[in-house]
Amino acid sequence: MPPPPRSVDLTLVQEWQDGRLRPFQDYLAGEEPLEIRVGDRPISVTMRTAGHDLELAAGFLFTEGLIQRREQLLSIQPASDCRPAEQGNIVRVELDPAALAGLDSVRRNFYATSSCGICGKASIDAVRLRGIAPPNPAFRISAATLCSLPESLRTGQAIFERTGGLHSAALFSAQGELVAQREDIGRHNAVDKLAGWALLGGRIPLSDCVLMVSGRGGFEILQKAAVAGVPVVASVSAPSSLAVRLARELRMTLVGFLRGRRFVVYAGQERIEMEQPADSAPG
């Protein structure tokens, strides 16, 4: 029987530096397919880093619109009746009849919107048709607290520190306290793991949280955050144009290039409390 999927692998490599070649053992971020089945029916396959797989499956079903409430998820567990090579890489879920009834149309919609050929307007229209409510308008976070989040995100990236090959997503309170953090080879998977954690724990909507992601803030990240009710999304890199349009459409707060004592606000500035520099205070 093959070993279960792992989040980290070890391999022998050769390093060249200044004309010298030396062998050493290096850590690699694990990457294997996770198949999500509703009953015996495959719904999706995503390449992921093993760990928190049930959260990933639940979060995917929720953020992609296959379920709207925790109560629609009757059971979720690793598949036990699969081939040895598939052990640990299949999650089976059971849904209530109402969710099952709409599964065909949602599945077609999911595969259509996953196409790189669909236009930005159609993508935003698809989100609008899902009736996602604008997130908490009363949420506030200070600029100083925002600036503290990247360091907290890095501190919690245990697997990244060993491999250098994973993305991270984390939820923070308005006071900058870490609520939950997940890592994955795919940035969107890390967000789905957080959404699944919140869904399974009865914490949806995440109306009092900031989502911080490594890398860029793309459309898919914003869409998943919106479904989960997150009012503020921040990233260490640039957002995409479609992400900015979606944030403005849904009245979310979107922050990019959050590094050191600098960030750029692309939407929803009213949720950020900007302190006044001491040297600009009135005399």
Description:
The protein has nine helices and 14 strands. With about 280 residues, the protein is α/β, with parallel strands linked by helices. The protein has two domains: about 30-130, Ubiquitin-like (UB roll) (Roll), CATH 3.10.20; about 140-280, Cytidine Deaminase, domain 2, CATH 3.40.140.10. α1 (about 55-65) crosses α7, α7 packs parallel to α8 (about 220-225) and α8 runs parallel beside α9 (about 240-250).
CATH superfamily of the largest domain: Cytidine Deaminase, domain 2
Biggest sheet features = 6 strands, mixed
The first-level CATH class of the largest domain is given as Alpha Beta
Order of strands across the widest beta sheet? 9-8-10-11-12-13
Sequence of secondary-structure elements: EEEEHEEHHHEHHEEHEHEHEEE
Q: What is the residue-mean pLDDT, rounded to a whole number?
A: 85
Binned strand content:
25-35%
What is the CATH architecture descriptor of the largest domain? 3-Layer(aba) Sandwich
The helix-and-strand class reads alpha/beta
Total helical elements: 9
Report the helical percentage. 25-40%
Q: How many domain modules?
A: 2
Shape: globular
How far from one another are the termini? 75 Å
The CATH topology name of the largest domain reads: Cytidine Deaminase, domain 2
Any idea what the radius of gyration is? 20 Å
Task: Point out poorly predicted stretches.
Answer: 111-118
